[in-house]
Amino acid sequence: MRSLNRFLSTALFLRRRFCTAAALTEAAAEESSPLPPPPPSSSSSSSKKNSNSDSLYRQLSRLPATGGKSVSETLNEFIRDGRVPRKDYLDSCIKELRKYSQFQKSLEIMDWMKMRGMNFSHKDHAIYLHLLSKTKGVSAAENYFHGLSPFNQNLNTCGALLHCYCQQGLEDKALAHFKRMEEMNVASTNLAYNGLMSLNMKLGKPKNVAPLAEEMKQKNISLSALTYGILIHSYSCLDDMAGVERVMEEVKKDDEMKQNWIIYSNLANAYVKAGDFEKAELALKELEKVMSRSDQEAYHLLLSVYATTSNIAEVKRIWGELKSACSVTRNINYLAILQALSRVGDLVGFKDIFTEWEGECSFYDVRLANVAVKTYLKADMVEEAELVFERALKRSLGPFFKAREMFMSFFLEKQKIDSAMMYMEAAIDEVKDGEWHPSPEIVSKFFEYFNKKMAIDRAEEFFELLKRVGSCNSTACNLLVQTYITAGKTVPDIRGKLEDHGIEMNNELENLLVSV
Q: How many whole angstroms separate alpha carbon 473 and alpha carbon 131?
């Protein structure tokens, strides 16, 4: 058995691979959304019409998050050119954009549809409610739901609102809403129960999951692949592998479920979490037997888990099969293999495939560049990382904040404050409309350096940069004061400096000064 220590260092990564969160939420891209492929056109009347529709989709998917042409302007321009997008095509655009976490664009398309007088189905109202929650918060989704007619407060929209509550971990609201759904006789669905199960997992209450599954059985509600996945995850979190295997025995009695590759992916991850890589790989072999050769998500899962078990040979085999199965190797496929090769530490293979992607890609997805920057910096290959970043600046639309933060962290660890500050200044110069704030971890790392070096001037310079992006929160103020204290400044001096920076005293700062 391979080293368990390697697995423990990747626990956070593996947790994302369980289907609990993935099936109840659209996985948000960690750094930026990839360019979605065009959805299949609903109309087959002519190849020209299909081409026009795909052209519209590509325009919408490539619109920048802020600045530039808006979604409504793009749609109106499309109509002015004599082309009217059908509702079913717009629905498919929304579906694809949601899949790639482009929620704001999806919402703007639906707003445009409403403005044009297109009728919303129950499903449309549910999707709109979900998009409001994603872009404007749960309260906006609640207001929309309560503004619907009783006819439209149904299984679809009630389920969507429950989904929002569960996603946000709002236990009291979720349970109260579920009770109302029971009163309306719309709660006896596996979607509703899966939501409650996911909520309990999110809240760190895996013991509550199995009783909910039993309740489903008592009510003759069929258990879905997602239900079984959550059950496996819950037992795994309880370190109850016997429970995991009991679930799999139940799955094997269901001809439909035992053909579902997602269940085997959860089983593999459970074994990985337990440190049993041999059984994890046996589960992956079962997954390969039942998966569709055209299911790219299954290939991506195989790449990630084989990488976690450090099986480079299987990573390369799966990559070869994925490329053979695809008519076109997309950015998302390259992202999966690059993440896998980075995880196993195969720098030669990583560089070869990254170079291949750069030479072939039609759209330079900044996420792949970010993976390369992270991989090279981890290996102390800073020159290679900088070259990748330079190419990304020329070929990609960004955003570049994630990469800049990686460079900041790297140079701070190397005690190269000038370089770290240079990347911070560049990031702040790039910010538009408050789209980025330095992460708390980065802010803490900077002040850790200033504190250690008693570098008051650099700390003040950094604080002024934070002010430019509205990031002078209480934590930053406290860290600045702590730097003054470490450098031996007196209380009057500190008060004067805080006044110069426009910082108002509060109880927290006063308590810090008392310790001087």
A: 29
**Which sign does the torsion angle of CA 145, 150, 156, 158 carry?**
positive
For 277, the token pair is: 């890589």
**pLDDT for position 54:** 62
Packed helices 347-360 and 366-378: angle between N→C axes, nearest 10 degrees: 160
**Which of 330, 399, 402 has the alpha carbon at shortest distance from 372?**
402
**CB environment 131-168: b (16+ within 10 A), e (fewer):** bbbbeeebebbbebbeebeeebbbbbbbbbbbbbbbbb
**One-letter identity of residue 143:** N
206 phi and psi angles, rounded to 5 deg: -65, -25
Sign of CA dihedral 367, 372, 377, 383: negative
Alpha-carbon gap, residue 335 to 368, rounded angstroms: 6
Helices 347-360 and 312-325: crossing angle in degrees, nearest 10, is 20
HEC string of 458-476?
A: HHHHHHHHHHHCCCCCHHH
Phi and psi based region of residue 67 (left: phi greater than 0; alpha: psi -120 to 50; beta: remaining) = left
Residues shown for the chain: 516
Ramachandran class of 454: left when φ > 0, alpha when ψ lies in -120 to 50, beta otherwise = left
**How many angstroms separate the CA atoms of 177 and 162, rounded?**
7
Alpha-carbon gap, residue 235 to 245, rounded angstroms: 9
Helix, strand or coil, per DSSP, at residue 102 = coil
pLDDT of residue 154: 96
Give CA separation, 325 vs 30, 295, 303, 446, in Å: 26, 9, 15, 47
Nearest to 347 by CA among 312, 323, 319: 312
Q: Which pairs from 198-204 meet CB under 8 Å and 24+ separation?
A: 198/20, 198/21, 198/24, 198/166, 198/230, 199/165, 199/166, 199/169, 199/171, 199/174, 200/234, 201/20, 201/230, 201/233, 201/234, 201/237, 202/21, 202/166, 202/169, 203/169, 203/171
**Domain edges within the chain:** 363-428, 437-516
CA distance linking residue 121 with residue 265, whole number of Å: 34
Can you list the residues of the chain whose pLDDT is less than 50? 1-14, 16, 19-35, 38, 40-51
Q: Amino acid letter at 90?
A: L
- Provide Rg for the chain, Cα atoms: 26
8 A C-beta contact, residue 489 and residue 497: yes
pTM (whole model) above 0.85? no
